[in-house]
């Protein structure tokens, strides 16, 4: 049975539709990414799943319970890490965990120590939360979210504002929880994080554009990816890239061209060859460039789906 089953889920605020007829299922043991820009409806979806707000239309079934009428049962079995980590600054890490264990009615006295060890928090257990870095707070918030042994974990942009090393370490923790059988829905606007998920839902303006494995999503691209580099000293001049972008923008068969640091990233129809792209530059009297074939990344798929 699906852990989350959502059908036509919709939420309007006045005339504005924040979540627009979304339907999806999440099977047990998966880590599903919910990828979308700010304001695309990620938090609103999660709040409906937890029964914190009511859908305007449609329904959500979470762990076999109806989100509108059985939200207490959903929350008792679900861990939720919201964007604002609700930690007490003037308590230590251990005291925070102990407090939340009490709130959730966790009677096992070992649970706090067990979590401190499992999440590598023992080293900061006696430190006041206000002295902790964003990475440690995030990890402690995860411990709080799983203190009551939830079957499902909803993580709302858990890695926002956290440095890349702590983000990577956080994902290792997520995998260890999935290995224990927890199902995870994690929202993010980091494209690279979506690659870590078993399946990824792509959300824009409240609409779910696709939900599939990262590889299947990339296969949706209506063409092939290329990269164009400036050779020699010219690669130090970012403004030299703009004319190249202009040329590609006007080239038949080029679906999308964008700047990517020191080079261009091109999506072109499958029939277009490297030679054809090179010839286009030569025809415009642009030399010293290198065209290389590239593999798609999640951002390519995202841009492609959103522009459709
Ligand atoms: N209570 C509310 N009243 C009015 N509008 C709201 C309310 N809650 C959310 N919205 C609007 O709904 C849209 C979706 O918001 P939501 O928080 O779900 O987006 P998000 O994808 O989680 O973005 P973010 O990453 O910024 O949190 C936004 O335009 C937001 O302003």
TrEMBL record:
SUPFAM superfamilies associated with the record: P-loop containing nucleoside triphosphate hydrolases
InterPro entries found in the cross-reference section: AAA+_ATPase (IPR003593), ABC_transporter-like_ATP-bd (IPR003439), ABC_transporter-like_CS (IPR017871), P-loop_NTPase (IPR027417)
GO molecular function (one): ATP binding
ATP-binding recorded as keyword: yes
Domain named ABC transporter: residues: 4-230
Record key words, sorted: ATP-binding, Nucleotide-binding
PANTHER family in alphabetical order: ABC TRANSPORTER G FAMILY MEMBER 20 ISOFORM X1, ATP-BINDING CASSETTE, SUB-FAMILY H, MEMBER 1
Protein name (database record): ABC transporter domain-containing protein
